[in-house]
């Protein structure tokens, strides 16, 4: 049995005629008759008595009709209420990168807890692809991304500037320091991102390594997990942006003479009015976090 059958039942009761009810429902009389027959077969009793004067409810039919009369209205109310919630709920798709995944998800959960109408879904992509993810509308926001090379199609909100760092295993001889000069790493094996054209920062860091570390050897890595594994096994330093998290077993060393990186949030320019308040809340969450405060004290964040 479905809602449509109960609506048909109501029309027949009010019209007292299968023919008139069929005309109102824009179906044939035989179709209406089959609908009622199927309903009677399902519930196990006769609903209508037919006579020359029309149709009337049986005693069982009367009880059934009275107690089911409100169901279509309740159904419509339930559907309307559910659709209203969906219309009011803001679902934001956030582009996340492997090395910022955990932090961004926690930040979004914190914002969601403050607003029950707000929800997030996450789109995994490489930093290199985040702009494309925004432009082709796979994502609405890109958070904690490099924004210095952003073009005019994006609205960007700066969150902080950070110094470039190397991340080393806790077993590495340099692990007890907070900063180094790039030249101090000369002669060592240095891991660096294989994304040669991913952004201004990658290009500038490659120039720094070539200038300050002419006797070093370089290994390119595809993603941070690969770099972490090589670092842990071989005690190699890792070239990396100074994002807010470092994996367990590693420490971050500030590179004193390396260029700084502008980190922020980005959205499509036409969506600035819609997403700017959310981006500002994300910024406030970042700068109020204990991790950010610690990095600022150490000079890693400007």
Short description:
The chain is of the alpha/beta class and 302 residues long. 44% of the residues lie in helices and 24% in strands. The N and C termini lie far apart (66 Å).
Q: What do these coordinates show?
A:
By secondary structure, the chain is an alpha/beta fold. Strand 3, helix 6 and strand 4 (118-124) form a beta-alpha-beta unit. The protein folds into 3 domains: 3-83, Arc Repressor Mutant, subunit A; 89-160 and 262-294, 3-Layer(aba) Sandwich (D-Maltodextrin-Binding Protein, domain 2); 165-258, Periplasmic binding protein-like II (D-Maltodextrin-Binding Protein, domain 2, 3-Layer(aba) Sandwich), CATH 3.40.190. The chain contains 11 helices and 13 strands.
List its traits.
302 residues, alpha/beta, Arc Repressor Mutant, subunit A, D-Maltodextrin-Binding Protein, domain 2, 3 domains, five-stranded mixed sheet, four-stranded mixed sheet, 11 helices
């Amino acid at each position: 049995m479905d809602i449509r059958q109960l609506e048909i039942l109501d029309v027949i009761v009010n019209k007292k005629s299968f023919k008139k009810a069929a005309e109102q429902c824009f179906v044939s009389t035989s179709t209406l008759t089959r609908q009622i027959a199927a309903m009677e077969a399902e519930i196990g009793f006769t609903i209508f008595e037919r006579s020359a004067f029309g149709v009337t409810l049986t005693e069982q039919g009367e009880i059934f009709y009275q107690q089911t009369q409100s169901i279509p209205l309740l159904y419509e109310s339930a559907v309307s209420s559910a659709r209203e919630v969906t219309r009011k709920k803001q679902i934001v798709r956030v582009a996340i990168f492997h090395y910022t995944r955990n932090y961004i998800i926690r930040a979004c959960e914190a914002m969601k807890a403050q607003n029950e109408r707000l929800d997030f879904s996450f789109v995994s992509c490489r930093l290199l692809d985040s702009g494309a993810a925004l432009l082709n509308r796979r994502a609405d926001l890109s958070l904690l991304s490099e924004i210095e090379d952003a073009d005019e199609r994006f609205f960007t909100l700066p969150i902080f500037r950070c110094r470039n760092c190397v991340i080393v295993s806790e077993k590495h001889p340099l692990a007890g320091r907070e900063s180094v000069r790039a030249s101090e790493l000369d002669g060592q094996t240095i891991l660096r991102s294989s994304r040669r054209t991913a952004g201004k920062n990658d290009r500038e860091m490659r120039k720094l390594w070539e200038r300050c570390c002419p006797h070093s050897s370089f290994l390119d890595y595809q993603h941070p997990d690969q770099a972490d594994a090589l670092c842990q096994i071989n005690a190699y330093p890792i070239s990396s942006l100074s994002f807010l998290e470092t994996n367990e077993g590693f420490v971050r060393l500030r590179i004193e003479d390396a260029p700084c990186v502008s980190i922020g949030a980005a959205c499509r320019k036409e969506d600035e009015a819609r997403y700017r308040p959310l981006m500002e809340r994300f910024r406030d969450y970042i700068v109020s976090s204990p991790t950010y405060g610690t990095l600022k004290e150490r000079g890693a964040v400007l």
